[in-house]
Amino acid sequence: MSETMQPPEPSLRAEGEAILPSGSPRPSGPREDKAAAPVLACSGLRKSYWQGRVEVPVLDGVELAIRPGERVAVMGASGSGKSTLLHVLGGLDRPDAGQVRVQGEDIWAMSEVARGNLRNRALGFVYQFHHLLPEFTALENAAMPLIIRRLEKEAAFAEAERWLEEVGLAHRLTHRPGELSGGERQRAAIARALVTRPACVLMDEPTGNLDRHTAEHIQAMLAELNARHAVSFLVVTHDPELAGRMQRVLHLSDGKLESAQAG
Ligand SMILES: Nc1ncnc2c1ncn2[C@@H]1O[C@H](COP(=O)(O)OP(=O)(O)O)[C@@H](O)[C@H]1O
Ligand SMILES: [Mg+2]
User: Fold this and answer.
1) Which of 72, 74, 166, 169 would give a disulfide with 236, using CB separation of 3.0 to 4.6 Å?
2) Which protein residues touch ligand 1 with a CB less than 6 Å away?
């Protein structure tokens, strides 16, 4: 697969559509630039759920900074708060305290509309279940984020097709999710997350629903995509093999993130 993968051309900018925020060009130098400002960072992040009057702390002072192009895994037992962390970092769930900065901007200090815009511009999401729309083809699903941005259909489909090729689905463009295997559905979901060229993709157990063999292919592909494109990945998982594909592995326990192992 890797031999046939071609990075998509940066065609979107030619369409006059502001895919990237003006003044913040896509990092194109070294794919992990330690001096560069983090694409996604949080500090002092706290969040509890309440069971009646009993506070159940889930995040209890989480600190994290993800640099451009970096691949980071967060591991933790089921119920340790991995999904909660992703939702708070991704602007989907408000923290009780602390800051989340996406490309330097404090997302929980801005309006809901501004937060939504920044999220759509800068972040991509991949979940354990693909969340593809069943009545649309792989091509239409992958193009959807661009169509929602009102990019012209032809340009959106052209870009989606490039990303579907990139994830090894060039031969499945007109298949609907029901006509794809589990691994193919997840590849389509990954293409959809990347089609807007986000700075960082947040993934919640992206291989959790796949058999080991299929999961290994997706894991290798993720590492390859990260190496080819200036995109950061934050993957939460309890799968040590997937975590092992990342450059940095952190552990979430007792509401705090700690370094699990070097590089
Ligand atoms: N909406 C919610 N209301 C109450 N408790 C929740 C809610 N979402 C998650 N929790 C609890 O918070 C803890 C962390 O959940 P979650 O972030 O889903 O963990 P993980 O993704 O690591 O399995 C769990 O104990 C879970 O039961
Ligand atoms: Mg979870």
Assistant:
1) 74
2) 49, 58, 76, 78-84
